[in-house]
Structures are given as C-alpha cells and as structure tokens.
Amino acid sequence: MRKTAKKREFKLHDGERGAALTIRVTPRARKTEIGGVLDDGTLRVRIAAPPVEGKANKALITFLAKVLGVRKNKIEIVAGKKGLDKIISVLEMPAEEAEDRINTWMQNQK
Question: Which of 19, 21, 34, 78 is 20 to 30 A distant from 100 in Cα terms?
C-alpha cells in the first residue's frame, strides 16, 4: 500500500481577487521565518519586529512578498491587523500557485 502525500497542509483559498490564507504571527522572534503549520492548518510565521506601531505587520508583508515573489502592494492584511491571527490576501495570485511557492520556500529553508 502506497502512502499519498497531503495535497494541502495549510489553509489557502481562492478569494475574489486572489489567494487568501490564515496566519498566526509570533512577533519579537529571534528571526523572521515560517515556523510551520498549526493543527488547524494555520501557517505560523515568526517575525523579528515588535508589534508596535504596525512594525510587525509591515515586516510580515515584506517577508511574505519575498516568499511569494510578489510586490508588497499585492499583499493585504484583510483581518487581524491588531491581533496575532490574520487573514492575508495575495492579489492576482491563484491559491495553488501561492501554495506551491510557500511549500518550496519551506522545503528550501530546512
């Protein structure tokens, strides 16, 4: 019997204008990195910046732009701007492409 790999480990959906994903942010981390996937499918992202005056949100957008290979203005925090749990929209990128880029980033960081 052959084991099949999971198609999707984290929550990623096609929204009206692009991909949407759920993220749990850990601010003031030692370094900015993807910290894995939580049991509910939320992507954990550690951010070195403090959660003061939007610095952690700006750092999150910059980091996700780098991971996904898009401009920062294509990433939007749709919900959770003041909390640790966020919904992120990646404009003009299908969920499948965003998923592939995140998975590739996570594999290359091991």
Answer: 78
